[in-house]
């Protein structure tokens, strides 16, 4: 199938597992892309290459560095230039989801870390790689955001703030580079990936709730790729994400209050730090 993605050189952050690995694999296997994966875990990267198999492994290379440090992106951009590598597509997927808890229970350093990884890593990658992307005939930036950017919930202050910042940043970019770059924003809901490990529930009731509202990772990747292939400007995926989008628009104050009330009424370990006195 003819697609604008075919044969492109793509950079994917958070490529060692979950949605990042799934997106990287789809780009390679379905579209014949050359993918540079960015992550911090070499064992996970090597495992991903093994899972790709020998027929696809040559299309994947990886770099290990902390995406929240601007100097690492500067070094990476210099390396690309020195080696004559012309990236066409940047997919910012790296992110962390801290435990649900109230603002007073967060250390400032925790909040800074969430902002650095979830928001500033994308800012740094875009700033340093933009000269390459603008040279491409099909340059693109796709930011994998979150349903938390659509409506904030109790216990997600730092996470929601980081994702709301990324959403606003991406939407402004989309207008600034209209006609020059494809800029896509993806807002998935809860997904069964490694990022959920910090939210693993101690009780069976809590785990059942997580499983009920979370979308299977492979299905989420398929939906995201479908949107990217068609250059969709905004993607919202998952039952919880669609609900948050609707309530966030129709009831911007009471919608968040309603969801938070449901979380409190659930009375499970997952949300205990939020409502504990």
Describe the structure.
- This protein has 277 residues and is an alpha/beta fold.
- The chain has a single domain (9-275), classed as NAD(P)-binding Rossmann-like Domain (Rossmann fold, 3-Layer(aba) Sandwich).
- Helices cover 51% and strands 13% of the residues.
- A seven-stranded parallel β-sheet has the order 3-2-1-4-5-6-7, with helices on both faces.
- Helix 6 links the parallel strand 5 (140-144) and strand 6 (182-188).
- Helix 1 (18-31) packs across helix 8, helix 4 (70-82) runs parallel beside helix 5 (108-135) and helix 5 runs parallel beside helix 6.
- The radius of gyration is 19 Å and the shape is globular.
Structural descriptors:
alpha/beta, Rossmann fold, 277 residues, 7 strands
Major sheet characteristics: 7 strands, parallel
Q: By helix and strand content, what is the structural category?
A: alpha/beta
Q: Give the fraction of residues assigned to helices.
A: 40-55%
Please name the CATH architecture: 3-Layer(aba) Sandwich
Distance between the amino and carboxyl termini: 57 Å
What is the number of beta strands? 7
Protein topology:
Elements: E1 9-13, H1 18-31, E2 34-39, H2 42-52, H3 54-57, E3 60-64, H4 70-82, E4 89-92, H5 108-135, E5 140-144, H6 157-176, E6 182-188, H7 204-213, H8 217-229, E7 234-237, H9 239-250, H10 254-266, H11 272-275
Parallel strand pairs: 1-2, 1-4, 2-3, 4-5, 5-6, 6-7
Helix pairs in contact: 1-8, 4-5, 5-6
